[in-house]
Specification:
Blueprint lengths: L8 E4 L2 E3 L3 E3 L21 E3 L16 E4 L2 E4 L8 H12 L5 E6 L4 H11 L6 E5 L16 H14 L4 E5 L6 H10 L4 E4 L3 E3 L2 E2 L4 E2 L6 E4 L4 H14 L4 E4 L5 H10 L3 E4 L1 H5 L3 H15 L16
Parallel strand pairs: 3-16, 4-7, 7-8, 8-9, 9-10, 10-15, 15-16
Antiparallel strand pairs: 1-2, 5-6, 6-14, 11-14, 12-13
Helix pairs in contact: 2-3, 3-4, 4-5, 5-6, 6-8
Bound molecules: flavin mononucleotide.
Length: 307
């Protein structure tokens, strides 16, 4: 007889997911295309494309290139804008029995605050703040690189919304722990670790950069070991939940991130290659638990053996 296995995880105070598998922002759009492949209700949560107050067109094409063990994208945060999302996209997602987490960004503190206020609405289970965006008032330096500026920003956004607030960190910092602690001190509920790594591709035949934007963000298995170390380091430094992102393609990857200290995982680039990887990963985590006689997925979280 099979074990009675509990896969429910709590990713922020009072916010439970039926299992630890979520989509990653920007790789799942607003869920419509993936619903043709599987029932979105199987997911722990859907994380939407990053949204801004106004619609955004994004960067010139080409915007995606495949690399060894991954891909580089320079989409440029193209999105329909928050009002159109709430009107045209959110009702579709609410048909499914899953959590909807909305990723958002701004280019000034005020934009972040206004976006959070606009998204603090029925049906949205949590907000995920992307802080890898250039701060126009600070000469284009990413918000997420400066712990003090980030602390001030998160504090304001925190006050602007009543929903759980997740902050998604950039891996491109000198000391990720000080950034994570600044976010925790500003009373964010959880962290996502971490976003893409800056990268570029060159076509030696044309002698030109491959991407229209010249550079982009590297994702996929190539960045997994980097993300794994960040999750391990951050989850030992903070006492708020950490959600993993970076190169997860299999249940084994997901289990590794849980062992490193993540309470949930986001699957991004892998779904662009094979949309059915979501059900496969969810089933695979359950099979791992069964095989190891574990009744609760939480037993895996932070279970790394280091002695
Ligand atoms: C095409 C594409 C678009 C993305 N758009 C966003 C975005 O809008 N906001 C965000 O926070 N992260 C965005 N990301 C980053 C992913 O959510 C994820 O953190 C990253 O790709 C690493 O995970 P992966 O290796 O599983 O893809 C994007 C990634 C890709 C590949």
């Amino acid at each position: 007889m099979g074990l009675n296995i509990n896969t429910i995880v709590e990713i922020a105070p009072g916010l439970h997911l039926k299992n630890p598998v979520m989509s990653a922002s920007g790789t799942f759009a607003y869920g419509e295309e993936f619903a043709d492949f599987f029932d979105l209700s199987i997911l722990g949560a859907v994380v939407t494309k990053g949204l801004s107050l106004a619609p955004k067109e994004g960067n010139p094409t080409p915007r995606i290139v495949e690399t060894a063990c991954g891909m580089i994208n320079s989409i440029g945060l193209e999105n329909v804008g928050i009002p159109a999302f709430l009107r045209d996209k959110l009702p579709f997602l609410l048909r499914f029995d899953t959590r909807v987490i909305v990723n958002f960004f701004g280019t000034t503190e005020d934009e972040y605050v206004r976006a959070a206020e606009a998204l603090d609405t029925a049906g949205v289970s949590a907000l995920e703040m992307n802080v890898s965006c250039p701060n126009v008032k600070k000469g284009g330096i990413e918000f997420g690189r400066d712990p003090e500026a980030l602390h001030a920003l998160v504090k304001r956004v925190r006050r602007a919304c009543s929903r759980p607030l997740i902050v998604k960190l950039s891996p491109m910092v000198t000391d990720i722990r000080s950034v994570a602690l600044a976010v925790q001190e500003a009373r964010a509920d959880a962290l996502t670790c971490s976003n893409t790594l800056p990268a570029m591709a060159i076509d030696e035949k044309t002698r030109r950069p491959v991407l229209g934007n010249l550079t982009g963000g590297l994702s996929g298995p190539a960045i997994k070991p980097v993300a794994l170390k960040i999750v391990w380091e951050v989850s030992r430094a903070v006492n708020i939940p950490v959600i993993a992102s970076g190169g997860i393609v299999s249940a084994a990857d997901a289990v590794q991130f849980l062992l490193a200290g993540a309470c949930a995982v986001q699957v991004g680039s892998a779904g662009l290659r094979d949309p059915m990887c979501y059900p496969v990963i969810i089933d695979g985590i359950r099979a791992y638990l069964e095989e190891h006689g574990m009744q609760d997925v939480s037993c895996l979280v932070g279970g790394l053996v280091t002695d």
